[in-house]
Amino acid sequence: MEYKQAILVRQDLKLPAGKMAAQAAHASVECIFRADKSLVKAWRAEGMGKIVVKVADEKELYSYVQQAKDLGIATAVITDAGHTVVEPGTVTCAGIGPDTAEKVDKVIGKLKLA
Q: N or C: which end of the chain has fewer CB within 10 A?
C-alpha cells in the first residue's frame, strides 16, 4: 500500500518562499503528532512521501480540511504567531495525513501543485 501526506498552502497570502516553507513544516510535523501511529510508521517506511498543493484562501483550505476529517484522516491547521509577515492568528496552511494515498487523493486529487 502507498501512503502520503498533503500540505495545503494559501495562495492569497503571497508569503515569501522561506516563510511558507516554515509554515508547511509546522503542518507536516503537527499532523504526524495527530495521526495514527501505525500509519506514521508505514509512511516513514516508504520514505515519507508528501505533496504540497495550492488553495485559494482560508475558506477553501477549511473545506478540504473538513473533507479529510470526514474520511478520518488526521489534519492540522496552522496559524502564524505574527512575528514577521502576517497578523497574529492568520491561518497559513494545513496538513492532511499521513494516510493511504487513496484516501488523501480523494480529498486533494484535483488541486494543483504549489
A: N
> b or e along 60-80 (b: 16 or more beta carbons within 10 Å of the residue's beta carbon)?
bbbebbeebeeeebbbbbbeb
CB 100 within 8 Å of CB 2: yes
Here the CATH number for the domain that contains residue 16 is: 3.40.1490.10
Structure confidence by residue, pLDDT tens digits, 28-69: 999 999 999 999 999 999 999 999 999 999 999 999 999 999
Q: How far apart are CA 77 and CA 4, in angstroms?
A: 17
Taken as a whole, the chain contains a residue count of: 114
Q: How many CB atoms lie within 10 A of CB 6?
A: 29
59 burial via Cβ count (<10 Å: 0-12, 13-18, 19+): exposed
Range of the domain at 41: 3-108
Q: DSSP 3-state assignment of 73?
A: coil
Alpha helices in 1-114 (DSSP H): 17-34, 37-45, 58-70, 101-108
